[in-house]
Write a structure and sequence with these properties.
Pfam families: YbjQ_1
Shape: elongated
Protein name: UPF0145 protein SAMN02787144_101468
Number of domains: 1
CATH class: Alpha Beta
Largest sheet: 4 strands, mixed
Number of strands: 4
Strand order of the largest sheet: 1-3-4-2
CATH superfamily: Hypothetical protein apc22750. Chain B
CATH architecture: 2-Layer Sandwich
Family: Belongs to the UPF0145 family.
CATH topology: Translation Initiation Factor IF3
Structural class: alpha+beta
Strand content: 35-45%
Order of helices and strands: EEHHEE
InterPro entries: UPF0145_dom_sf, UPF0145_YbjQ-like
Radius of gyration: 17 Å
Number of helices: 2
Length: about 120
């Protein structure tokens, strides 16, 4: 597995800039659209649960679960960007992730932030 299996984030081709900061240096917010989010819930694969259980006894990283969580976060982020774009935003400020166990059957991941229109100052 390469580094791309354990990372995420935007590509250079994205129409919507997503940042975790309150502003973007060299830009000003010209319009605040409001909160946007991307949500996904993933169930755990039985095979990965068994493997994780065995691995937890001897220690070490649970690579299968790590990869699944990265994919889940990336999907939530893609949905966030789609919603922001559909509402006319070209940026999302203060993006955060929220991760919650969903009724012991899976993991809920929500990416959220404030959709805005920015322009160069």
């Amino acid at each position: 597995m390469g580094i791309e299996d354990y990372g995420g984030g935007q590509t250079d081709r994205s129409d919507v800039l997503v940042v975790t900061t309150n502003d973007v240096p060299g830009h000003q917010v010209t319009r605040v659209i409001g909160e946007v989010f991307g949500l996904t819930v993933r169930s755990r694969h039985l095979g990965s649960q068994i493997g994780a259980g065995l691995k937890s006894m001897i220690g070490g990283e649970l690579k299968g679960l790590t990869k699944t969580l990265v994919e889940t976060r990336n999907q939530a982020m893609e949905r966030l960007v789609e919603q922001a774009k559909a509402r006319g935003a070209n940026a999302v400020l203060m993006m955060r992730f929220d991760v919650t166990e969903a009724a012991d059957v899976g993991t809920e991941v929500c990416a959220y932030g404030t959709a805005v229109v920015i322009s160069r100052s």
